[in-house]
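User: Show me an example of a complex going from sequences to structure tokens.

Assistant: Sure. Here are the input components:
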Amino acid sequence: MSQQSGRWMQAFAASAISLTQANVWQPFVDVYRTGNGWLIKYELAGVRPEDVRLSINGPRLTLHGMRRDSCIEEGCCHYRMEISYSHFERTIELPTDLERATLTSEFRHGMLLVRVEKEDRR
Amino acid sequence: MKPEANSTLGSATRALPVLPIKNTVLFPFMFIPLSVGRASSRAAVEAAVSSEDKMLVVVAQRDPTNDQPTEADLYSVGTLAVIKKMAQSADSIEMLVQGVERVSLQKLEQTEPYLKASVAAVPFPNDRGTEVEALHRTVLEQATKVIALAQPEAQVNVQQLAAQTAGPLHLAYLLSSMMGMDLQKEQALLEAPTIEEALRLIHNFLAHESQVLELRNQIAGRAQTEIDKEQREYMLRHHMQAIQRELGETNPEKAEVELLRERLDQAKLPDDIRKEAERELRRLERIPSASPEHQLTSTYLELLLELPWQKATEDRLDLPYAKQVLDEDHYDLEEIKERILEHLAVLKLNPQAKAPILCFIGPPGVGKTSLGQSIARAMGRKFERISLGGMHDEAELRGHRRTYIGAMPGRVLQALRRAEVNNPVIMLDEVDKLGHDFRGDPAAALLEILDPAQNHTFRDNYLDLPFDLSKVFFITTANASDTIPRPLLDRLEILRLSGYSDEEKVEIAKRYIVPRQLQQAGLTAEQLVFTDATLKHMISRYTREAGVRLLEKSIGRVTRKVAVRFADGSKEAVTVQPADLAELLGPERVAPDQVRKHLPPGVATGLAWTEAGGEVLYVEASLLLGSRHLRLTGQLGDVMRESAKTAQSFLWSHAKLLGINPKQFRSSGLHVHVPAGAVPKDGPSAGIAMITALASLYTDTPVRSDTAMTGEITLTGLVLPIGGVKEKVLAARRAGIRRVILPKDNEKDLRELPKHVRAEMTFVLAETIEDVITDALPSVLTPALV
């Protein structure tokens, strides 16, 4: 077995851990704890708000969407590409029942902020 | 999430840029960094990144060396891939792509500026079952093993890895990418129609891989073991030394040196030798025992200590005792016994007297070697024997210098070391059979050893210190004196042991041989008796030799045959009669010498000396009319041929006196033959026999048949003395001849003959050729010659 494959093994081990369907990318995410709930911050620069869709399923919060490569035009071509385009999807799990929480979202400076507030127990 | 269930393309067909890659296959879900250099490939990549979903199709090309692959050069199944990142530089594009799903190339849409093909998804297989499950588990185990073997330090947990894969197919793709299978197998895996097939492929590969790796580890392990073993030994030695030090045991080298020092202190050495020995010992202490020098030096020291520098046996200077011993062991040999007694007498009066160096010359079996032993016994000295026969290297006698590997002291010093005294009797056997070659001449070394004037400081090359050999009683033996180098012969005191007469042999047999053989066979003198007549018969008809070696063997055979009878239970004493010998020893071996009763003209009876005793021989001559050559046959040596020519010349020049017509010499050639033709002969002593034969031929008168003759001739007609008189006379007597013509100067040798022989024989002593012819051919002589 060559040394090369040894290096590759590491690469694949890493990739296997973040395995999802291969043709979607995952935006980075920060999750904050707040006084009465959670604040989730998605890094979604260049994504149009109408291309984003949030769904909930029990404790799971899933973000779907796509980032369009808006610069594409005739005679123009990537010289370097580091930004992920096309479909993305990100699912996070929170220790709370989202069905009974209030979700609000806003876009600010290229970030999507999702605020989760537990419902008051009356 | 089940990748098998999803398809990005669905059932649609799409036209996508195609990127041919070399040497590898991109599997779905797998990331692969690619470097693109070809213009067409760069165009394909640029087209892909310019599309919304950054997709292209990655296909392996069959021949990695082909830079312009066409549709036929590509496999028909490829992988749909997404470009994750890319960066261009002046001459290539680096990018990271991830496989999505496998697709089949349906139709090539364009080839310029890049390949573009319409592709359709090949759905992931979805077979399940115990077979797949079993294979899946086996592959997991194998993978664990192979990874452990290949990269023990990588710490990859295959089980964990497998848990994160999306199913057996994904695992197969992952393992295949990790292990780096060859292209054909990778492609086959990509195209596998069922999961089972895919797992089987990876299973076979892993099985092979694990075998190879095990073998590799075994080989590497073996090399490692060898190194480990050496290291272990080294460590153990160190431990041993440490333990010995702890226990107060000195190391073995030290012990050896101490031992040698003790021996040195006790040994009686001359001062200068002791000084040398101590120097060597100090040197030895400094040399590590592992060094070959160590062994060399300690061997040398041992020799130094073992040599008898000052140790000597005390001579038994008792003349009557010595005489008794010599007489006990040997019959007759009066001259030699006398010589030995003389020496003992001298030693008695002057203990510092130098020992003579004797040389016994005589035919084999006359007792030369055993005589040496009895001399040693008579004098009360030790006896050592060195055989010089065939020795051809000076270093054998004088030793090799110590610089040479395997150097040893010479034979002389070795003999002294064995004897443990510095005054043994050393017998140098077969001194006439020394050889010599480019390595030197042992005879030259013998010169020093045997010269009483210089052998008190004999220097052996190995010892490299002077050793005194002057106390050693050297005796040399030889069969003939003519092959002994002249300077060596000068230093020796020659004592000739000639052959024994039949009567002497009977005495020897009765006194020494028969008792000895009886004892060896376990018989008593009463059980087996040999009569004199029997012994005589045995000597004359079963042996023909100067010594008694064959006689002893024959007697031995008889005693053994008789011993068999006694062993079988016979009680009857046996007396062997001559008639019994045919039964005991077989038919007679030796026919009595054929005496020619009547000699035709041209034949004379000569006498020859051989190493085995004397012989009677005939010289035959005949005229060759019409020829003028002198022809000589019968294996004659140069000296003998010359004496034939001398004889002819003498007769020619004295033709008148003998009444020979001188014309005969010119009108006819001459042929001289001496039988037996197969035995080489040489020497001048047949001279008078030749001239008698020729005189008889030219005068047509037969020679007296009862007379044998021996003597050298000169051209002027003198008869010169010859050697071996005793053997020759005995041979003539054995053949029944009672008259012998001898040179006058050999008269003194007749004293050697036993009295009864002298009484029986008639000797004619000749001074000139006339004397010979007068006796052998009485009728031819003209009065003028007389």
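The lines above are the inputs; the final block is the predicted structure for all two components together. The radius of gyration of chain A is 18 Å.
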